[in-house]
Amino acid sequence: MLAVSPPDDQRFGLARHIVLPGPLALDGGASLSQIEVGYETYGTLDADASNAILICHALTGDQHVASNHPRTGKPGWWARMVGPGKPIDPARNFIVCANVLGSCMGSSGPASADPVTGTPYAMRFPVITIRDMVRAQALLLDHLGIWSLAAVVGGSMGGMQVIEWAATYPARVRSAVVIASTARHSAQNIAFHEVGRQAIMADPNWRGGDYYGQAEGPSAGLAVARMAAHITYLSEAGLTEKFGRRLQKRESVGFGFDADFQVESYLRHQGLSFTDRFDANSYLYITRAMDYYDVAEEHGGRLADAFRGTATRFCIVSFDTDWLYPTSDSRAIVHALTAAGAKASFVELSAPFGHDSFLLDVPELSRVIDGFLRAGL
Amino acid sequence: MLAVSPPDDQRFGLARHIVLPGPLALDGGASLSQIEVGYETYGTLDADASNAILICHALTGDQHVASNHPRTGKPGWWARMVGPGKPIDPARNFIVCANVLGSCMGSSGPASADPVTGTPYAMRFPVITIRDMVRAQALLLDHLGIWSLAAVVGGSMGGMQVIEWAATYPARVRSAVVIASTARHSAQNIAFHEVGRQAIMADPNWRGGDYYGQAEGPSAGLAVARMAAHITYLSEAGLTEKFGRRLQKRESVGFGFDADFQVESYLRHQGLSFTDRFDANSYLYITRAMDYYDVAEEHGGRLADAFRGTATRFCIVSFDTDWLYPTSDSRAIVHALTAAGAKASFVELSAPFGHDSFLLDVPELSRVIDGFLRAGL
User: Of which family is this protein a member (chains A, B) (predicted)?
Assistant: First the structure.
């Protein structure tokens, strides 16, 4: 076990990196001989290692939950939820967030060096699943000496990991918070991801994935992928309220192909800035993992069978304007939990921001999570 | 006036092409010195030229309403609506459908030769609007000796043209049928189009639009644009029913990046086959025209002012699963028509196919159009 950062240092927002020994057997049949994990911790693990909360991040998220992003300098993606006096409080809990397997912020992924060849895996990295991500997190927690989690919490793809945690390691999860998520990727979800993948793979600079060390990567394709996905993160009403048909610079339309409308300029910026912080091959692998995600299919076709006999308490939260993983997806999870006899709370919150509501200023979300976590103490 | 096809031949599904003299003054300030129009007619114009119905096609549609497409060999896009015994019947009406200005099926567009230089306009073609498309159609009807239209009918972007017809030439339109359409493009509509344009323009084979005569055009970018747009034409429930998570070829997922799911294979096919029949620059120009479309803005900010004093009868049809131009968009049109004192019928139909419902097997749509058109005879 090769500890790169000292595991006993538990200051607020400590960025860490570790190489864990494998092999990690993957759902696809391959295995990884070792696993790198980039992660951050907040707070202090108590004497009986019982106060840990694992936070699971979304598709393009990372371990920098409440500390500034090392590349962009921006505040952590969930700083409103994690911190002193926040619902997930390092004064009370030892908080862990790990970069998911397949990503590009310190955990093993296509940009990592294949230990056999010493060169980047690129598309030779094995295809992974959400459950594989969870297995890698479990290895990290083993290393940290954490067997039982006070809670696993996540939104969007983070919520998928929470569900896989509860289904794969039920005895290790005391509470599970699943926000704006689903138990299976729908045809429409897959379709949007496929557009993004095709945009990346159509970029000649993608070079079959072997663009590492080249002057140019597939940033144009990655930007288009991000733009398409970004639309699905926002509500139609939210876009209308934020941008409507307001013009970018002019009194009237310019009759050309520059970004005339504010929404165009915004989307272009979202696409471009994404390419500064994310690896295109990681985007391929993680979207693929999400598309393969179908918890019922992993359990013989019945979602309830994923949760039989569980003692985990669940809190499922959806947003009324989320059309990516709509409330009906959350309801399906709650139905299955109920059918399995699990303890499940379900809240649909009203928020104007669409799927991205879980990241934005929705005070009710903070209150729900705070109350649910406190009740489990 | 240079009539390329004999204007007196009115056989069923006759494909025609004409070059009309300009100048045609465009909303953007430019003008076209002459206008090519590819069009088709069905049926016979009666002695007082009063039985003509103009059909307006959608973004990637064409004049081949009910005859086989000359490139793909596929049946016309609205063969279920137009033909003997159909709601729009050549036994009763003289039916005209013209390829829109900016398109690539015989009407002037970026692939056309600039008469000044003799080489393709490419991105030197002037930016056009939906109203410009309608002005070009009006010139064609002038040439055909048709002043008053029994009806103008169209779905999606075709419906936008119908609204512009009624607003720009109210005295020439006796009945107007607007299906699955809107009076303004929303921020989300613009956002999806911008993704498509960026996908095309990111393709190195686009070459700033000057790809005509090159070995390769921006077909990869155009395919991605089509894939993204295609998702918006279908309902989430329709995609689930048609494809769900069914696999393409295997018993189980392949853990790779081939098209594992049927919906991926379908989307890829939609993207690729589109590039055989459509010009990428036309896609840029027509999506731009749609984004600029805002009928209220053209009339001082009040949609009702576009229709004051009109004698046109209107039929507005929406579909309950259309999330591209949802029923609320149609309702806004009906509100404005009512406020303007116009005769307006409004029907929301239930159909599972999303926006594409106007092209698909929805018997109720045929009954509504048939009944509305007959009542206006």
Answer: Belongs to the AB hydrolase superfamily. MetX family.
A221 CB neighbours in chain B (<8 A) are: 202
Answer whether A198 sits within 8 Å of B224, measured CB to CB: yes
The amino acid present at A175, given as its one-letter code, is S
pLDDT tens profile B61-79: 999 999 999 888 999 999 9
Co-location of B226 and B337 in the same domain: no
pLDDT of residue B15: 82
In total, the C-beta contacts within 8 angstroms joining chain A to chain B are 153
| Measured CA angle at B204 (ends B203, B207), to 5 deg | 105
Both B33 and B152 in one domain: the answer is yes
Domain range for A165: 2-186+295-375
* Same domain, yes or no: A32 and A87: yes
Q: Within 10 A of A24 (CB to CB), how many other CB atoms are there?
A: 21
Distance from CA of B332 to the nearest CA of A (A): 15
Instruction: Tell me whether residue A356 is annotated as binding.
Output: yes
- A197: chain B residues, CB-CB within 8 Å: 257
Distance CA A172, CA A170 (A): 5
Number of structural domains, chain A?
2
Q: Is B209 helix (H, G, I), strand (E, B) or coil?
A: helix
Domain check: are B11 and B53 in the same one? Answer: yes
How are beta strands B31-42 and B94-98 bridged, if at all?
Answer: antiparallel
Chain A positions in Cβ-Cβ contact with residue B125 (cut-off 8 Å): none
The CATH number linked to A217 is 1.10.1740.110
- Listed residues B237, B252, B287: the one ending a domain: B287
**Do B264 and B300 reside in the same domain of the chain?**
no
Q: Would the annotation count B320 as a binding residue?
A: no
Q: Give Dmax over CA atoms of chain B in angstroms.
A: 67
B324 and B203 within one domain: no
**Which among A127, A198, A261 is the nearest to B227, CB-wise?**
A198
User: Using CB atoms, which residue from A188, A227, A263 is nearest to B187?
Assistant: A263
Pair (B48, B134) in one structural domain? yes
User: Hey, CA dihedral for B256, B261, B267, B269, is it positive or negative?
Assistant: positive
Q: Which amino acid is at A177?
A: V
- CATH label of the domain that carries residue B367: 3.40.50.1820
- Asked whether residue B43 carries a pLDDT value surpassing 60, the answer given is yes
Angle between helices A280-292 and A219-233 (to 10 degrees): 40
Distance (Å) from the C-alpha of residue B236 to the closest C-alpha of chain A? 6
- Three-state secondary structure call for residue B262: helix
Catalytic amino acids of A? 156, 322, 355
Contact A284 B257 (CB under 8 A): yes
Residues A144 and A218 in one domain: no
| Subunit contact A245:B294, Cβ cutoff 8 A | yes
Contact B191 A242 (CB under 8 A): no
Residue-level pLDDT at B2: 37
- Decide if B355 is catalytic: yes
Residue ending a domain, choose from A267, A287, A307: A287
Over the stretch B275-306, which tens digit does the pLDDT of each residue have? 999 999 999 999 999 999 999 999 999 999 99
B156 is catalytic: yes
